[in-house]
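Below is one such record:
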Amino acid sequence: MMNKKKFLILLLLVLAFGLAACSSDDGGDYGFEELFVGDFARPGLHDKDGKPYVLLQENETTGKTIDVLDHGAVPDDPDHDNTQAFKAAIGSAEPGDEIYVPAGKYYFKTHASTIGGYYSHIYLKKGINLRGEGESLVELVSAFQPEMNENYNTSVITTLSGYSVISNLTVTSATPNSALPDPNDSNLNTDVFTAPKYGITVANGDPLEITQNVYIRNVTVERFRRMGVRIVSSRNVVVEECTFKNAVDLGGGGHGYGVDIQGRGHDANDVGLTIDCLFNVVRNSRFVGPYLRHGVIIQYYAHNNLIENNSFQNILLDAIDLHGEDEFSNEITKNEIINTRAGAAIGVGNSGATHDASGPNNFIHDNDIIGGARGIDVILGSEKTILFNNRISNLANPNATGILLTNANGSRVINNVIENMTGENSIAIKINYSYYPLNPARGIPDGYVIKGNTLRNIRNGVFIETKTDNFVLEDNAFENVSGYEVLDDSPSFRLPGISDEVIEKKGNFLLPTDNNFITSEAKNTVQSQKNMKLKTSVLEPEYNRMIYAKFNIRGELTPDVKNVYLTFAAKSKDGPATISIYGSTNYLDWSEDTITWNNSRLHEEKLAKVLLQDGEYTAVHIADFTFPVVGQEFKTYYINITDFVKSVQGDEFTLILANQLVQEMYMEVYSSKQTAQGMTFGLIFTKD
């Protein structure tokens, strides 16, 4: 038998070997080590000082096994509410006990707890485990009243303290297959409220305590609205050998996520506090589309989490999404991602709502990305991202990008393999300029290292729109490239200047009374997103879109007002497109709650082009605005429409925004519902 001293020596040798192996991935000759300076700078399961973090031992069942049937639970009866039976069973338990659920379907209609703002059928106390007889044998079926799911944070299982194991069961709801959403519409929020918001919630119930040590194993989660597993301000939560599928809402606003790992919210930096969100793991799990918007989301300063060895298939948007809310030092490794249908397989940074950049040192390595629309996107200021030893192959989109980097200074793209991308406009590695309106030179790519990559059987290799001298591009291998291998410093690039349209205007701000967009894709459907769409396309007549906004300026045009600006935050994703702005003083009988393609006026029947006259209604051209640069970033612009506004005889008018030039481009504009500071659609009345 090995004595204690020999065991300790062996353990130290194993740890030393492990760290050495890790350092070959973390740095070696590629310079990653210089990025890992500072608190929590080393990615993945490493502590503040960069030392390996060892996950806590899961809570063991050392006491009683409590059968829910002994407390009045009734399986396989849709009319029976099992909430009180499970509550009684849990109430009788002490730390170390487990709640056992025999085979059957158990229906739940009411909530056992409202602690922490979550209305939950099952509330687990600290130290209590919940075990079913089998993942396919036990179903916990949520049947809240629809108004509960619509108006409250409903959850099937909630723990706000931790030290629990949840295993061997399925979490679902009484939502039929016929109520599942259109799997290809990322803009439509459904009105299916038979499903709870969350499947399993792990959150912090006391900011002075740490919520930690929850293992969720061999659990299927489906038929939820927002998130299958929601991990908030907690740590050491392990999700393993689980399956996520069949969300009932894929629209914006946080719907259709398999696993969500997050801090408290926007601008809430809790790093180092008891409510910090770190050391969480998702591994060996399956995320099955098409009814998932995202597979795994990490957001709101969550850091040093690990996403490892999972399978993602047919996810709608970014299968793994670092959501553009300052999340940093997360590790994403050894995942297989197949056929992400509309987004990237892995996204770092996000252009929606209040999102923008992810934090530094997110380490994405040894993943296998097969098929789908795009490979890996790193955008919107997500600097010092590490992409190492990933394989990206067979992207299906003819315009696909294997790796896209926009405003990702200091990032490393090392030893990746990108192959079998032959679409006419596909590019293996694309590095874009990013526009900073008041300092255009700031957006020139800087500090990148693109080294040791293999690009095989591809249309185009490396596109670099422009770059500084602090840029490494070397030792990349190109095999069977039918287009260019490297297009360095694109000859078409011209550094944009500063124009009056990007300089902030200050004055009295006025929201529209109504604003919305219409689309030929859904001619009789009222749109409900914060992002309004613009597109005029002959090639894709089903995707024609334009924007309407109605204003009442009563009392705004005082004698000291000199200028009136239309302000909006917008982006053009496909080219330097132009938004044409038109005004009408007699088309006023419409509402944002009812306007559709078919019932709106002053546009052509099939194209989103403005008509100057449509029966009794008339419009005039006011101005044209051309985006200074293409990109994923929303920027705020100010368009002078003073002459038109001062010419209006009454108080009301309608503005119509369209791509009148039919440029086959795609644009988005934030609506008045967008609450991000300085990005809301409206008018500004200035005195200068």
The longest helix spans residues 4-26.
